[in-house]
Amino acid sequence: MINNTGKAALFVSVLSLGLIGCSESITDDLDDALTHEAEFSFINAMDYSLDFHLQQRNLATGSSGLFDSKNLAAGNVQVNGYSSEYDYDYPAVMNMVNIGMRSAMSSQNEVKVHTNLSDDDEYWVIAWQNGVEKHLTLLEKKERDNANTFNVRIFANGVYPVTLKGSQVMTTERGKVSDFLTLDNCALDLTINGHAIDLCTGDFGESYLLVVNSDGKQVLVEE
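Request: output the structure for the sequence above.
Response:
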């Protein structure tokens, strides 16, 4: 039989365990609220291999130190290639980020941008050029999956006519992405600036981002 003293001790022990469990839950919830995350995938539509860097932005220092080795997010991304996903965790109150690219071989031709993030953002970071001009563009990833079709957004470095099944349906805008186009055939439906675009490396029912220049397809990536 447990006496009153023992009962009191047992009650205190159970209460303490409950408080510890509750405290851990509150701590986890607080950590989730104070820490945000974002995801980046880097696309190289330039004519040389690239390194991409990412750094938390500080108002006092701007982009100083962005190209330090510790900030490398994707190294030696090949021409017309793309990186694996890069996960970035950051304090919720420090949501500004610097992003930069430069030649992987010479560490020259630097381009920088900065932006503000929201929790769970997912971005494409596209390095592209138009003549001698070099650019970095951020696009939010999107999906519009439809069974038995190819669903494609087009990002272009210039103004090009886009035809579907022989009829012009739109014109691309320099440095901007189109709405989704729906295609029934991966090889025959789509032509951009007079060049037939083969999408047969993709899968029916999925959503894709297609990066093009005046010669046609450069990169096709699943959203």
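The chain has a mean pLDDT of 90.
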